[in-house]
């Protein structure tokens, strides 16, 4: 990992420590101790297990998509891809580093970069589509709660949904309407032409080739309905495990009255809020969003801060640490 990324990694750990200190500065220490004493570690283990299953299901998706293209990837390398992605997402604004880090992980196995790019883009399209589907479901279940108790967050959540919807729409446009996409790319690159014709031609040519390759791959994947169906189902299942994590944390703190579907729908809304914060990992916004949404589920501030801390360790810091380990372990080069 580069020196810059290492510094960002350390910086995010320090920032996380500062945020947790700030969150606990006015919390009654007795409340925190009481919450720790009543903590059910079995449910915490299940919450961590849900995160591990989330990552393993993504590894299964990677293997299915690559193996369907008359290629092969070992389980060792397939598991490494989502772990490295967690590191990329965690140290870059808007989780923008996840895709490049996955591409690096696949390229290190000896896989052709163009082929790896098409696989990752298709996986990303399905993932974003399932996020939008889940969000629509969450709006139906939890939007009334959001507007009545947390009306100040309504606009942020809706804005997050719009951004995800735009991303999916643009990707679908690239997949099934390359002509329109070519025109949009040329329009976006037009200012470059004012300064350098050579650079414009170079960038435009590369972009057009990528669009054509992605379009061909999309058509191929679209014809392979069996593989596409598996990927969609597994992605949906993957997200359900992730969205269920706060439910297990609440159970660990003795809140047995909570409903699984309702808590999952609220977690979906939090994820939308996090996606709008430019700081890596949505630091600050994630903690505030969790505290605002789940404050009414817990008896006191001590229990709320403890729940938030456990949630961030499982859903964010766990991914950072396993990601940095995965990035630095030896890679198995493909024999094919």
Structure overview:
The protein is mostly helical and 336 residues long. It has one domain. The chain has 15 helices and no strands. It has helices at residues 3-24, 29-38, 41-67, 75-90, 98-108, 113-149, 151-176, 178-188, 190-195, 197-223, 225-243, 245-252, 260-274, 285-294, 301-328. Helix 4 (75-90) crosses helix 15. It is globular and about 65 Å long. The mean pLDDT is 85.
Instruction: Please summarize the sheet with the most strands.
Output: none
Global outline: globular
Report the helical percentage.
over 70%
Number of helices: 15
Mean pLDDT: 85
- The separation of the N and C termini measures 27 Å
Report the radius of gyration as a whole number of Å.
21 Å
- Low-pLDDT parts are none
The chain-level structural class is mainly alpha
Q: How do the SSEs run, as a string of H and E?
A: HHHHHHHHHHHHHHH
Strand-residue proportion: under 5%
Total domains: 1
Q: Kindly state the number of beta strands.
A: 0
InterPro entries: L-PG_synthase/AglD
Catalytic activity: L-lysyl-tRNA(Lys) + a 1,2-diacyl-sn-glycero-3-phospho-(1'-sn-glycerol) = a 1,2-diacyl-sn-glycero-3-phospho-1'-(3'-O-L-lysyl)-sn-glycerol + tRNA(Lys)
Family: Belongs to the LPG synthase family.
GO biological process, one term: lipid metabolic process
